[in-house]
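chain below, 668 aa
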Amino acid sequence: TEGFDTLKALVSDWPPARAAQVCGVKEADIWQAAEWFATSPSSLSLYCQGLNQSSSGTAKNTALINLHLATGQIGRPGAGPFSLTGQPNAMGGRESGGMATLLPGHRDPGRSEDWAEIESLWGVPDLPGQRGHTAVEMFEAAARGELKALWIVCTNPAQSMPDQATVRQALERCELVILQEAFAHTATARYADYLLPAATWGEKEGTVTNSERRISRVRAAVPAAGEARADWRIARDIGALIDAGLGRPPRIAAAQAEDLWLEHREATRGRDLDITGLSWATLDRDGPQQWPYVTGPTARLYTEGRFATADGRARFIARAYVATAEAASVQRPFALTTGRMRDQWHGMSRSGSVPRLFAHEGRPLVRINPADATRHQLADGALVHVRSSRGEVVMPVKLDDNIAPAGADIAMHWGDEFIGAQLGVNAVTQGAFCPDSKQPELKFSAVAIEPAQLPWRLSACAWVAPEDGPRLREQLRALMPRFGYAHCLPEPGKGAQVGWAFEAACAEVPAPELVDELAAVLGLNEPAVLRYADARRGRLRLLNLDKSIDGGDLQTAPLQALLRVGQHGEGAWLVDLWRERTAAATFGRWLLSPGAPPSNAAAAPSPQVCNCFDVREDAIRVTLTRCSGTPAERLAQLQGEKRCGTQCGSCLPALRRLVATTPEEATA
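prediction:
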């Protein structure tokens, strides 16, 4: 290694007591972690976007790598820094040069010799010779009018990028926006001048590389739908049109995915990821293989202490501590971070159309510590404004002991496709980014959280046939911007039908014409609809029974659709009644009564824990009272009876928490 003395001098200024104060952890915990790390035969560091999505993200990553180099915890089984990356095929994207900061084969766009190698490989003498804009830089430049066209490939920047006001300004200012996408209902699709239908993962061929450098073949499970094409085919075909217009032969002559992969393979020759000994046929015959693969696969790197540098020595990189780009203040006292929900993916363009994935966590929330809620007079479930210097978002607040004091957390997935009248969570996040990686600091934004004065509430819900679901979704979404707050979410079904639930809030009684539009969308403007209206008090209930069940028996018919308007929680119990598909006749006159709900009103269902086997928290707790032994034994007994946590495993952390907090029933 090289550079350890410089690093040692830097670290000497950071004793555990100082580090503990900055990091908000106990000094004793730092000592304990250091002891475990130093004495363990193998130490593996798993980290996620908390290190990466930072204005000093590269420094954070190198600090962790420095620790592994200094202790020799690298290049052997069970040791090393392991980034749990958040993108599908992130490794493959880096290897092929699919980034503004990389050329194919891990080449550097800042080196003229690397550009020369790619020009020679591709036979293209007029490459730009410098790196391009990264994502944040690109949209900032477009917002300033420096870019005239954007070609966006299978991503949703109008949801996923920070500082959405700037992103939307860029999309509106660009003279040409091309979107290459598999889903037509994303936030970005509304800005597209041309929408090119792209094939999805299950419809195309190629390779992917996972975090252990293992290259796997991807095969199409079904043909691409309609006019959709694989991404590379779209690029090739449009490139051919451009070449023809310029009077030259096509520069991309690939006829199949294998042709492109062979070109990529040649780009790795002599590089740290050299796969020139690997063939498409080998991947087909022998399955996934690890790079480098010159004469055969390489199971583990750095086993002999040699690294991918000119002299084979690893470099310690000493970076001084840099605080977040903005700090909490009296005006904005909360530190907001964004993260993932267990069962959702990115902007939910795909996963958001699967109702059962909302069973675990079904609505947008901002989570804060209960002590902060008391201090700021925020009630659990109340609507609040979350404001930064860039914008704001309105959503319900959730009290959560797991959130640190003065902290706040919102899931990254919520964009204006699901929460209307606003730009989603990224309206408040910041565009400050790491100078090296260019990743934005999505994990820290200074915000204020204040009560939202939106006392009037509206619920609009309906169960429909699956083929009618997309139409209902888009009709409801089109009305969201007309409310101070709104969300429109799919509902996990209990039969063949699909449900959509629209919840809204506003400062005044909703306009009659807006309510009439919603009623028409839900089919609640028919004579047979049950109706209660009090125009003077602004109350309204429209209910339709599902006559398709039990031969149309009205005594057992559940609610098919409902529309309710009132202040705060008036009539909100009807939504749970609709959701649970309970016989509506059971509640008789209460269905149209403006008073308090009946004592037997449907309660909100227990939280879903296991989606694979549809197991809720209340059933798990009842079962655990009968399970005995150690925590591991009780978990095994629970799984044996309910099967929860035995398939995908994503609910295991929640199951372990329930085991720890649910006592065994005392025996007489």
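The longest helix spans residues 57-71. The chain has five domains: 4-83, 125-210+214-290, 334-451, 456-592, 608-661.
thats it, cya
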